[in-house]
Amino acid sequence: SMLEDMIGCYSWEKSPFIEVVNSVCCNPMTEVNNDNGPRDPKPQVIYRCMKCRRIVAAEENVVYHKPGAGETCFKWKKRDGNSLNSKKPECSSIFVEPMKWMQSVQEGHVEEKLQCMGCNTRLGSFNWAGMQCNCGAWVNPAFQLHKSRIDECHI
User: In a 10 Å sphere around its CB, with 0-12 CB exposed, 13-18 middle and 19+ buried, how is residue 75 labelled?
Assistant: First the structure.
């Protein structure tokens, strides 16, 4: 697609990590429409660098994961088992497919920071061996973009 050409996506099929990804990642849940009526097309979501507005990912590049148990997954943060705040935290990052703009991925690093190609702002980091989301879920391989550094735009 035109958007894919703009932001540059690797094909997972060509990646040696496809088996790992398929065994770990969950498919996004699809909406069920029971009324058979006309349906509004869902607006497409793109993610932009907050500083320079460059498009860094689209919704179809997001790798979804099943939320973990939150703070209880992090033994070093856990104070006691009966925490008052038992609500699961919202993920503070999104995880995406490896993208062509990710210079350090192209250079062959196993783990590194991810910087915007337009302005060099740090957007997140990646690790082929995986990372833990703040919700507690393990994502493998992990290409993490911090929500505080990107804008979610509906087009």
Answer: exposed
Would you say the pTM of this structure is higher than 0.70?
Answer: no
**Cα 87 from Cα 37, distance rounded (Å):** 36
Any idea of the CA torsion for 104, 108, 25, 82, to the nearest 10 degrees? -60
Measured between its terminal Cα atoms, the distance across the chain in Å is: 15
Which residues, other chains included, contact 30 with Cβ-Cβ below 8 Å and sequence gap of 6+? none
131 beta partners: 139
Residues of the chain with pLDDT under 50: 11-35
90: phi > 0 → left, psi -120 to 50 → alpha, else beta; which?
beta
